[in-house]
Amino acid sequence: MSAPETLSLPVAASVHEHAWVTESAHVTSEGRVRYVRCTGCLARRVDLDPAAAMPPVRLSREV
Ligand SMILES: [Zn+2]
Fold first, then answer.
1. pTM, to two decimals
2. Which of 3, 31, 40, 54 is 20 to 30 A from 46 in CA distance terms?
3. Where does residue 59 fall: left (phi above 0), alpha (psi -120 to 50 degrees), or beta otherwise?
4. Cα of 22 to ligand 1 centre, how many Å?
5. Domain residues of the chain, as ranges?
């Protein structure tokens, strides 16, 4: 019995590093919603950039 050659690496066309580009974006109360598209395979995705959790920090007192 010979050892089977198990070189079945899952190399699919869809496995690549997506190069997302933002097609459009708009700001919601949850943050900024971005509609992105991959320039390599035309996959689409919706990203959410969470709203800034921290308000601006005051560095000096009012003068
Ligand atoms: Zn892609």
1. 0.56
2. 54
3. alpha
4. 13
5. 20-50
